[in-house]
Amino acid sequence: MNLPREPVAAETVAHWRGVRPDLIVAAAILAVFGRVACNGWVEFDDPINVTENPHLIPVTWESLRWLWLHAYERLYIPASYTLFAVEAVVSRLLTGVGPRGPVSATLFHATSLLLHLGCVLVVSRLLRRSCGSVAAGVAGALVFALHPLQVETVAWVSEQRGLLATFFSLVAVEQFLVWESDDGAAGHQWLRWVGGTAAFIIAMLAKPTTVVVPLIALTLARVRPHRPLGVTVAWLTPWFVAALVIGGITRLVQPPDLTTFAVPWPLRPLVAADAVGFYVGKLFMPWNLCVAYGRTPQAVLKNPLTPLTTAVVLVAVGLCLLAPRLARLRAPMLLFLLPLLPVLGLTPFVFQNQSTVADRYVYLAMLGPALAVADRVAFRSGGPLVPVGVAMALTLFAALSFRQAGLWSDTGTLAAHACRIAPGVTASWTLLSGHHLSHGDASAAVTAARNAIAVAPGNRIAALNLSAGLARLGDKAGSRRAFESLQRLGMSPQETSMILYNRGVTHLALGEDSEAAADFALAFDRDSTNRRAARNLVVALTRTGQVEGALKVAEQLVGQEPDDAAAWVGYGNALLRSGRAAEAVACYGRSLAIEPEDAAVMLNRAAARLAAGDAVGASADITAARAIGGVPDADLAAAVAARKNNGTP
Question: What's this model's pTM, rounded to 2 decimal places?
Fold first, then answer.
């Protein structure tokens, strides 16, 4: 595994000294990935992890404590969710929207870019240490930075967990290697080992797949060994113990495996070998990349070429490990394979329900190809054409990555591209149908949902999108049939209603009132006991000017449950919008009779009283609201301004 100790030519050019190599790397990353900062959220897990994460709305010490003690959405990654929490707080402070307000995607994307830059700079230092060449370190680092397989991790906010985990993993490895080589002041060497250990623990708490970091450190330590193998392993033993402890905690906290297809143990190497073959192919031909490949274990095991792929992969790995002439490839190969071990399918993981392979799994593994390129540049294996070839490859990588980053600009672009590349993947069509529904294109949503169902007839979310899309198109019979198919698939009317209700709430928060009204109406139609859907339907209809419809639903609500304070507020808002101010005052009064300390409703009644000409009553409501407190100053200021505009004292 050991590489030659010295490069062919020592670094003599002055401009490689100082910070200039790092500036070259930073400039390349900014040029290729800078456009990511302008991207928005994508509906592929970003709502779950960030924008609609209940533990981030608002961020409190109690919510952070919960995230450190529990798994959220089947994952125990408390360090990553803590970073999301910090970003959410900073975003709200910068935009002044309050602790429950929406968060800006720009700040999150900027953080991802900084983390990617941090990872690349550490990779550059690791490669310089391994190859003894600054130029080689920069060349390898640029391969790590610019390869198109890295785009998904950098451009997707939800995968910031991978960036955070990789950054601390690389820092841990670097600190161990510095300690192991006795570089630096002797008095600080213990701090290197302790700091590396702490960084490794943080990495595992950001993403559990980093449990392989001790093996990565061992591999790099043997490239240019400074201590006997036994000594290196002995000092890595606490890391292996930490991996077992953190891994055990993660298994206890996270729910059990939820894969829909259990691969028998004897067949798992076939799935793993197929994944390795796929990644190697994309490593050398990095185009037609997408967010969902649909390479499930079932699809792999049905492929008659899978045994051949397995044989080729095993032979290639064996030759690299055993053939003396290929010794220089051992370390790069191991550094490529080791980070992939947890996600090759040898042990099941949830995303295998959609695909065993995904671009984001290669992020840390790209350290292997980076070392291979750095080694070539440092020792000129292949002659003077090596720098030219590396420059051409980097140019191609940069162009492809720049284009790929643009595909992550929004959900529609991302999903449409995935459907073109892998039309047999139901998840992509489902994502596209949901996007079209969110943007009011019911016809396109229906087409995408039908494509998703054609691929996977049991796709319940696609059937739900189909039902919603047909309802918006006025095809009530078709919508009802789609709804009945949901029931046959095991989704109860109450579950369907709640999914539609939650989607409507998201639309309402984003100001998409028409889409919200459509979802609330369908939710209430599917489950007439869902009063929250009905109350929000009144709000959405009122906002869109469909006052008669809002009044009809509100009258039904207060008739069924006269003690529902929120229903009376909605009724009052609809009446006020229709110009029936005196009746609105009465409705707000009924709400206040049920919940007397609601200052916001008092301000609503003040507005209605002003509209009805009762300035004295409006003034009394504003004063009472101020006395209760809990009303934003902006609301009070608006109410006072309204009094002045109406000539009240």
Answer: 0.83
